[in-house]
Design a protein that fits this description.
The complex is a heterodimer. Chain A is of the alpha/beta class. Chain A has two domains: 149 residues, NADH:ubiquinone oxidoreductase-like, 20kDa subunit (Rossmann fold); 77 residues, no CATH class. Helix content of chain B is 43%, strand content 15%. Chain B is α+β, with helices and mostly antiparallel strands. Chain B has 13 helices and 13 strands. Chain B has two domains: 32 residues, no CATH class; 390 residues, Orthogonal Bundle (Cytochrome-c3 Hydrogenase, chain B). The radius of gyration of chain B is 21 Å and the shape is globular. Chains A and B meet through helix 1, helix 2, helix 5 and helix 8 of A and helix 1, helix 4 and helix 6 of B.
Chain lengths: 243, 443
């Protein structure tokens, strides 16, 4: 059986999720043994229009990028959205809270009206084309990336956790951020990262997006217990979970 | 006679972000020679508005995945300047270590994975795996060591989660520091071998000289006098090779160094200080701070015959190797200092206040400027970032203008290769460039 051909493409993002693939370090050598990486602009000069799996990093903010993405979709058998910018729009969506003309002027002043600065509201990849699998996180977890690729190679659906980050915090015996009088997005955010932020003394920022059916009643109960409101929680969702 | 040459490199590979190279030569006359940046703008300076002072570093970290630690650190410093916050010596030392981990990671990635394939005549590191397995494994190891260091100090490899204005949310334990020390010491022989391997193909670096201005930080913090950290990536004033020992600029005047300007014929925003363009990056730091290099770094310098008079931009790759050696020794020195005193968690108390703050630090690819303003509730009202790659765009263009006439006689392929290698030598991080350059889409 020939090795599946993989191509990696980037759109509006920091390219930090591709970097997590590089950060697999010695394991990446095993990965390139079992798949044939045919295009990966950040790491290789080789290019190809023939691939089985397309991995897409970044958000879509311009018509020309949407068109490029559609071409990639038409060529790929399987399309994977890689990282928060691709799966939920990520921090790029913060700009959707502002008027787009005003945003351009704020950053570029009088040059803001130049045509190449014309962007529309940030879109996640599945708002433009059909996405087969999502690897969440800002950045992604390298081990999760490896797990997804392994699963696809053996023809089974990758495992994506559908329980909240709180589960992982409890397993790590991390003290709840609410005990420090802080608002944390752990109760509604999809797990799979092993809760590094609360462990490092920060709240969960919600970079993996919401679980499929967030337990809103439980979240409200947590808010009540600590004298907080749902609005306080929504304020914290701006960073990664703007619509 | 030179034949017609048409180079159109759309989205140059093995760099962070998207850039194009366009050259048109007709009957031996250069009609067009441009470095272009079509990266999708992301508007970070607009997005930080309305966010709380302690969320800024989390947002702007996402400007760049490769230098997320630098962006988080400089933002944290700018917020601290705005809010009038002082940090403890322990915080300062731990942040330095975190920053060194990124320099080592980024320099190893850039020289080893992105630039070296050109020197070995390959399109990427992948074909090098079977051809030069041993050295590739050493590069991978050095990269892994740097990342392990980031994980201990920043909470994870990319997008740090231990920083907060005024201090740290988590500090490394003494055991973690001792382990880190052993890991770094173990990595030294590998680094030397990597330098030797690059040296063996360094003859493939093009012979090209162009004098320019070199801008970097210069240490002023008394805490680091007569230490390896006197070679500054983090504190100090802004200096350049044109300052000649005076006229250094304090960081709160960085807007007067960057002087972003529009070129009449192209509306491109470039940066200039004393000349039409300047170079930010490892070679600039090296030229301005060479005397403070560590012993191992000076060995690497000698190995490559590098001197402060060298004005070959391709030598920026070599300066990154010199710095990789330097940061390992500088890190070991800081670890020893931290271990002498022991580490403890320090609680941070911040009262928001209105104000504007400025900061500059050295990202792996050059000096990086951020500034923010906050209202009395600590909500951000204004932000401004100026990224090293932006500062280098004009210098890349000026290099192109000298390089193309010099090498066009070698034909299209050789010229294209040299131009791509030149862009890579600057280690550009184009996603970072929040301000766009002249963009003319080429068919």
């Amino acid at each position: 059986m020939s090795k599946p051909r993989v191509a990696i493409f980037d759109f509006a993002c920091c390219e930090g999720c591709q970097l997590q693939i590089v950060n697999l370090e010695e394991d990446i050598l095993k990965l390139i043994d079992v798949v044939d990486v045919v295009e990966w602009r950040e790491a290789m000069s080789e290019q190809s229009h023939e691939y089985d799996i397309a991995i897409i990093e970044g958000s879509i903010t311009r018509e020309e990028d949407a068109k490029r993405l559609e071409v990639i979709r038409s060529r790929a058998k399987i399309l994977i959205a890689l990282g928060a910018c691709a799966t939920i729009g990520g921090v790029n969506k913060i700009k959707n809270n502002f008027d787009s003309n005003e945003v351009r002027e704020c950053v570029y002043g009088e040059d803001g009206q130049m045509p190449h600065l014309n962007t529309y509201n940030t879109k996640a990849i599945d708002e433009v084309v059909e996405v087969d699998f999502k690897i969440h996180g800002c950045p992604i977890e390298g081990s999760e990336f490896a797990q997804v690729i392994r699963s696809l190679l053996v023809g089974k659906a990758p495992f994506v956790p559908d329980y909240p980050v709180c589960v992982e915090c409890k397993a790590r015996e991390t003290i709840c951020r609410y005990e420090y009088n802080e608002i944390c997005l752990g109760p509604i955010t999809r797990a799979g990262c092993n809760a590094p932020c609360p462990t490092a003394g920060w709240r969960c920022f919600g970079c993996r997006g919401l679980v499929d059916n967030p337990n809103v009643d439980a979240a409200k109960e947590v808010m009540d217990t600590y004298g907080l409101t749902v609005d306080d929680l929504k304020q914290k969702m701006v960073l990664f979970n703007t619509k | 006679m030179t034949k017609d040459i048409n180079i159109n490199v759309h989205h140059i590979t093995r760099v962070e972000g998207h850039g194009n190279i366009v050259v048109n030569i007709k009957d031996g006359t250069i009609e067009k020679c441009e470095w272009q940046v079509p990266e999708a703008p992301r508007f970070f300076e607009a997005m930080v508005r309305g966010r709380r002072y302690d969320d800024i570093q989390t947002i702007v970290s996402r400007i760049c995945g490769i230098c997320s630690i630098s962006h988080s650190l400089v933002a944290t410093k700018a917020v601290e300047d705005a809010l009038g916050l002082e940090v403890t010596e322990q915080t300062d030392l731990v942040r330095h270590l975190m920053h060194y981990s990124e320099q080592l990671q980024s320099h190893t990635l850039h020289v080893g994975y992105l630039a070296a394939p050109d020197l070995f005549g390959e399109k990427s590191v992948v074909p090098l795996v079977p051809k030069a397995t041993e050295i590739v494994l050493k590069i991978v190891k050095a990269h892994r060591v740097a990342n392990q260091m980031s994980a201990v100090l920043a909470g994870r490899i990319t997008h740090p989660i231990t920083l907060t204005p005024g201090g740290m949310t988590k500090v490394p334990t003494e055991q973690e520091l001792r382990d880190l020390k052993a890991t770094l010491e173990d990595c030294v022989p590998d680094l030397v071998d990597i330098c030797k391997a690059v040296l063996s193909v360094a003859g493939n670096l093009p012979a090209f000289d162009r004098d320019t201005e070199y801008v970097s930080l210069k240490q002023t913090n008394p805490l680091y006098k007569r230490t390896l950290t006197e070679y500054s990536f983090y504190h100090g004033d802004i200096t350049s090779t044109d300052c000649n020992g005076d006229g250094d600029m304090p960081v709160n005047k960085w807007e007067s160094v960057a002087n972003e300007y529009v070129v009449p014929q192209s509306t491109a925003k470039w940066c200039k200080w004393h000349r039409d363009s300047y170079f930010a990056g490892a070679i600039a730091r090296y030229k301005n701070q060479r005397e403070f290099l560590s012993p191992l770094a000076k060995e690497v310098e000698k190995m490559f015959g590098m001197t402060v008079d060298n004005v070959n931009p391709y030598m920026n790759n070599v300066c990154q190797l010199i710095e990789a050696a330097h940061v390992v020794e500088a890190s070991l020195e800081i670890i020893d200092k931290l271990l002498t005193k022991g580490t403890k968690f320090e609680k941070v108390n911040v009262t928001p206040k209105a104000g504007r703050g400025y900061a500059a630090i050295e990202a792996p690819r050059g000096i990086l400027f951020h500034a923010y303003e906050f209202d009395k509730n600590g909500e951000c009202t204004w932000g401004n970032c100026c990224i090293p790659t932006n500062q280098n765009h004009a210098n890349i263009q000026k290099d192109f203008e000298k390089l193309v006439p010099q090498f066009m006689g070698e034909g299209e392929d050789a010229l294209r290769q040299k131009m791509e290698m030149l862009v890579r030598a600057y280690d550009p991080c184009i996603s970072c460039s929040t301000h766009m350059l002249n963009v003319e889409f080429v068919k």
